[in-house]
Amino acid sequence: MSGDKAEIKVGNALPLKKIPAATFVHNVEILPGKGGTLGRSAGTFIQIQGGAKGYIQLKMPSGEVRLVREECYATIGSLSNAENKNKKLGKAGRKRKMGFRPTVRGVAMSGGTHPHGDGQGKSGRHGTGGPAKDKWGNTVGTRTRKNKRTNKFIVHRRPNKKGRKSKKYKTII
């Protein structure tokens, strides 16, 4: 059941302003009426952390904390099949049937195809031993987020793999 007057029960869809804090939800809309776009993968859930000034603060599965308008709908509860991410594919053929193409190392390519290519044996990067580059010559490991328009909705970026502090943005609240 969905709507403003639906009871707070697993499987019901309600506007975020009607759902209490610390509740797990999934299938959350980013824009009202657009349809759910966040938290739709197997076993995922998003935690509501509270709200103010027409926005609700959500903690994403990645650890990112972001703001969403309180009129947006969300479905209460977490999705099933949480062990889906632990599934072993077993062989390359199953990965190919899922639409994945083989990953070829840059070192194994020719020099014209990749900056790491060319040379005899394990030559790797050439020249001054500068920073690692991707296929197009851009430095690897730099942040690539360009969408500054939505930075105001991100309270806290997801944690970095290398243990460095994640970036905090100025928010609208």
Structure keywords:
173 residues; mainly beta; SH3 type barrels; seven-stranded antiparallel beta sheet; two-stranded antiparallel ribbon; 1 helix
Structure class: mainly beta
The portion of residues assigned to helices is under 10%
The whole-number mean of residue pLDDT values reads 87
State the order of secondary-structure elements, H for helix, E for strand.
EEEEEEEEHE
| Level-2 CATH architecture of the domain at 13-81 | Roll
Unreliable parts: none
Q: Care to count the β-strands?
A: 9
Shape: elongated
Distance between the termini: 32 Å
Question: How do the strands of the widest beta sheet line up side by side?
Answer: 1-8-2-5-6-7-9
Q: Tell me the name of the CATH class of the domain at 13-81.
A: Mainly Beta
Number of helices: 1
Q: What does the radius of gyration come to?
A: 22 Å
Q: Please name the CATH topology of the domain at 13-81.
A: SH3 type barrels
Q: Largest sheet, described in full?
A: 7 strands, antiparallel
Detailed description of the structure:
The protein is mainly beta and 173 residues long. It has a domain at 13-81: SH3 type barrels (Roll), CATH 2.30.30. The chain is built from one helix and nine strands. The chain has one helix at 92-97, and strands at residues 13-15, 24-26, 28-29, 36-38, 46-52, 55-59, 65-69, 73-76, 154-156. The chain has a seven-stranded antiparallel β-sheet, with no helix packed on it. Strands 3-4 form a two-stranded antiparallel sheet. A hairpin with a 5-residue loop joins strand 6 (55-59) and strand 7 (65-69). The model has no long low-confidence stretch (mean pLDDT 87).
